[in-house]
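To make this tangible, we now present a fold written out as tokens:
***
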Amino acid sequence: MLVFILRRLAQALVVMLTVAFIAFMLFQYVGDPLTNLLGQDATPEQREQLRQDLGLDQPFFVQFAHFVGNAAQGEFGISLRQGRKVSALIAERFPATLELAAVAALIALVVGIPAGVYAALRRGKLMSQALMALSLLGVSLPTFLIGILLILVFAVQLKWFPSFGRGDVLAWGPWTTGLLTVDGLRHLLLPAVTLSVFQLTLIMRLVRAEMLEVLRADYIKFARARGLSDRAVYFGHALKNTLVPVITITGLQLGSLIAFAIITETVFQWPGMGLLFIQAVQFADIPVMAAYLCLISLIFVVINLLVDLLYFAVDPRLRVRGGAH
């Protein structure tokens, strides 16, 4: 177990160092931080002084070591666009993105799992075929188009929900949430549904496929032979084994929801990290871009590490294989 954990931690460290190197190269080859900070009219003396203050006169690997050390402490410098510490900007925007991704994942699970179970148990029925057709539509339509359609129908025509912003939020220290206010929930619903559509259809199709596979297993036949009711067979045996890969995929997809919320946040002007990143790209705000890249990579690495450890805990074959090595 210890060897397995250490191996995974070493792999995670290599990945993060690689990402940090890519982020560091943004500082070296994208834009000129001296010009962005001082402007075109700065004197050579001012540029040289700022170069020394930023450590840009030091050797490449010394600068990279300083960058990694600062990144490990959550420090990425000053935003060239807003003139504030990048860590403060990320701390302000991260709650909104995490809240959006968490609600989207909840919607995908609550709707996707029952729909997938129904499509498997009622295979061939009209409603089941309709659900599968809708799932293809959900996988095929781009996220921005789904968001625009929802805005057109529910915000512009029906006027049930607002079309942009986060609404009223409550602050608990540095953390903010709109889940405890009616206005915040109304602002959250449309972007959360937009972000959840792809994951929802993916989960539904995965649950259906896994459910059909499990129902053909021998232990399901034995359960039926023992006289168990359909409810006990479907939900006590089949669904329980179906959810193992579903939970794993959902865990990995949570990282994707956070990383790829950029489009949804842009369409709805949701004040999260994705919108911050888009604005940073438009302005060539390298510190913010580097911080976003490192943070998203860290989220993916942590989630993958947790999934690997979970597999190791529940699958005895991995423990035997790990002990053999």
Observations:
- The first strand starts at residue 170 and ends at 172.
- The chain has two domains: 1-80+286-325, 91-283.
- The CA atoms of residues 134 and 201 lie 8 Å apart.
- Residues 91-283 form a domain with the MetI-like fold fold (CATH 1.10.3720.10).
